[in-house]
Design a protein that fits this description.
This protein is an alpha/beta fold. Helix content is 27%, strand content 30%. The protein folds into four domains: 10-213, P-loop containing nucleotide triphosphate hydrolases (Rossmann fold, 3-Layer(aba) Sandwich); 227-309, Elongation Factor Tu (Ef-tu), domain 3, CATH 2.40.30; 318-423, Beta Barrel (Elongation Factor Tu (Ef-tu), domain 3); 453-593, 3-Layer(aba) Sandwich (Rossmann fold). The chain contains 15 helices and 28 strands. The relative contact order is 0.08.
Length: 599
């Protein structure tokens, strides 16, 4: 393909649309009509088609592998360069939305604009709509729609207007405003690089004119400095003791002497020297450039941190993220499961904590209170990470808000970070501190109540994978304790979800808030001197942390019933397959050991 000139303006474009609507033909024809093909390439493809009795297709110009040509489909994503007198272009021709997502969130190529290709006869299909949603989700704001294969509908203006109206209505629903709708026949080259006399009724721009009208985003040199650390290079020969921090500058500028801070670690030093090979002697490193620098003080930083300048706006640092996600995995994105989240050069284990809202990207139908996100759906989700990450929000700097989710070994989804949230335990601690500061106790304290009732108040949490046995054992345990004269109360999680937490059940739902309210109710019942038995399915470690913030941990015991534990939660006893009576006896012994059941 034609090489680009590094000194000329360049625009990165993605070409999207439903299968067989002509994406590859559009790109192939643009290459041919702008003279951007290597010499002899077009003739070789025509000769290949003639020798194999195949009709010539411009899409073959992109399908370099013989295997791809024989199957008649595009297999791998291609990056194609072409140029006009005004600027250079790099087109990302992705075969499907999965590849599109991978390309969009990778650091190598961020599309600034898109061509959305729609078949004039078929109109908007499912993938057209999903791709449109992805354009919105990944903040691609410059979009031109090519209503393609106009020759198949007799170049009808009525057919063009019908497809245009449908497209415009859907795009507006997902927050995308198309700059223009272009009537094209990519196969015949009509209204791509040149106008089609056969469609004199069409007076809008050609596809090439639409491309030329798109704006190239200026390098964000005026924004705060950000450089995700790609690696730290060390040298061991010739007495060279440099440690070079290397990466690509996403925004801002850097020069020797600048005070730099690395996030999330918070370590700080100053830039000693900008490094390059060969040494260009450039006084600064700025947005869009690969850079390396040494520090005046040798501190340990690692891949995944973000370098920022002291005195400028800091990146966000958090373990809990509110995100917009598009899911492509074979298996659904499920509550409670862990995934690998990759953002810039960093990665972390991420547990899906909440699905606030799910959206079918084709129909735009929405649902709340879901426990999973299915393939080709979008969702507003909250993730809890195993370690803090540094990032910018999508509203401030989309390039440092984009992430992908890896399930096993496959990229299965991705999206944008919308908000940095406090970790549930930290937020719960603040609320507990506020509660304690405003707590209005009566004149009878817990010690006097326990003396009167003849028992130590406490909380037994019965969790696990076997829901039926978990509930049966807990209720039988309550009966046994009550028969012994204990003051005991059984509290199923459903009583909280549809009682105290009914307001958030009826809205988007909030698992952490459900657990917090459960813990606060348990705290009140314990303060009244009761032994409380709570049942909850598959309690997570962070759920237990929340409960421990609200309730004295010395008054909490945890039992797991069923195979497991499968969530990593710390348990005092595990009852895998014991019969009900044996489970009850074991729990009675546990309560005696913890002092909640005294003779």
């Amino acid at each position: 393909m034609t090489a680009v000139d590094s000194n000329r303006e360049r625009l990165n474009i993605v070409v999207v649309g439903h299968v067989d609507h002509g994406k590859s033909t559009v790109v192939g024809r643009l290459l041919a009509d702008t003279g951007s093909l290597p010499q002899g390439r077009l003739e070789r493809i025509r000769d290949y088609c003639a020798r194999n009795a195949k009709p010539f297709e411009y899409a073959f110009l992109l399908d370099a592998l013989r295997e791809e040509q024989s199957q008649g489909i595009t297999i791998d994503a291609a990056r194609i360069f072409f140029k006009t007198p005004r600027r250079d272009y790099m087109i990302i021709d992705a075969p499907g939305h999965a590849e599109f997502l991978k390309n969009m969130v990778s650091g190598a190529s961020h599309a600034e604009a898109a061509l959305l290709v729609v078949d004039a006869a078929e109109g908007m299909k499912e993938n057209t709509k999903r791709h449109s949603y992805l354009l919105s989700l990944l903040a691609v704001r410059q979009v031109a729609v090519l209503v393609n294969k106009m020759d198949c509908v007799g170049r009808s203006e009525v057919a063009f207007r019908s497809v245009t109206d449908d497209c415009r209505a859907f795009l507006r629903q997902v927050g995308v405003e198309a700059s223009c709708f272009i009537a094209t026949s990519a196969l015949l080259g009509e209204n791509l690089a040149s106008r089609a006399p056969e469609m004199a009724w069409y007076t809008g721009p050609t596809a090439l004119e639409a491309l030329e009208a798109f704006r190239v985003a200026s390098a964000p040199v005026d924004r705060p400095f950000r450089m995700p650390v790609q690696d730290v290079y060390k040298f061991a020969s010739g007495g060279d003791d440099r440690r070079i921090v290397a990466g690509t500058v996403e925004s801002g500028t850097l020069k020797p002497g600048d005070s730099v801070v690395f996030y999330p670690s918070g370590k700080a030093s100053a830039v000693k020297h900008l490094e390059s090979f060969p040494d260009s002697g450039a006084p600064t490193a700025q947005a869009g450039e690969a850079a390396g620098f040494t520090l005046t003080e040798q501190i340990y930083v690692r891949r995944g941190e973000i370098a920022a300048l002291s005195g400028q706006a800091r990146p966000c640092v958090a373990r809990r993220l509110r995100t917009s996600v598009f899911w492509l995995g074979r298996e659904p994105l499920r509550l409670g499961r862990e995934y690998t989240l990759k953002l810039g050069t960093a990665r972390a284990r991420a547990r899906l904590e909440q699905i606030a809202l799910s959206v079918d990207a084709a129909s735009l139908a929405t649902e709340t209170n879901r426990t999973e996100v299915r393939r080709n759906e979008a969702a507003e989700c909250v993730f809890l990470l195993d370690a803090p990450l540094a990032f910018d929000l999508a509203s401030d700097n989309p390039s440092l808000a984009r992430f992908v989710l890896v399930d096993g070994y496959e990229i299965s989804g991705g999206g944008l970070v919308r908000e940095a949230l406090e970790a549930p335990a930290a937020l719960a601690q603040k609320r507990v501190d506020r509660r304690n500061a405003h707590w209005r106790a009566g004149r009878i304290d817990l010690a006097r109540r326990e003396e009167r009732l003849g028992q130590r108040a406490g909380l037994l949490i019965v969790t696990g994978s076997d829901g039926e046995r978990r509930r049966a054992v807990s209720k039988t345990l309550e009966e046994r304790l009550f028969a012994e004269g204990r003051y005991v109360y059984f509290l199923g999680i459903g009583s909280v979800l549809y009682g105290l937490a009914a307001d958030i059940r009826e809205s988007a739902g909030d698992h952490a808030e459900d657990v917090r309210r459960l813990a606060e109710l348990a705290h009140i019942l314990i303060d009244a001197g009761l032994v409380v038995i709570v049942t909850a399915a598959r309690l997570l470690p962070e759920d237990l942390d929340l409960i421990m913030e609200a309730v004295d941990s010395s008054r909490v015991a945890v039992a797991w019933i069923g195979a497991g534990p499968t969530t990593g939660v710390a348990c005092d006893v595990v009852l895998a397959d014991e019969p009900e009576d044996a489970c009850v006896n074991t729990l009675l012994s546990l309560l005696s050991e913890r002092g909640f059941r005294q003779d």
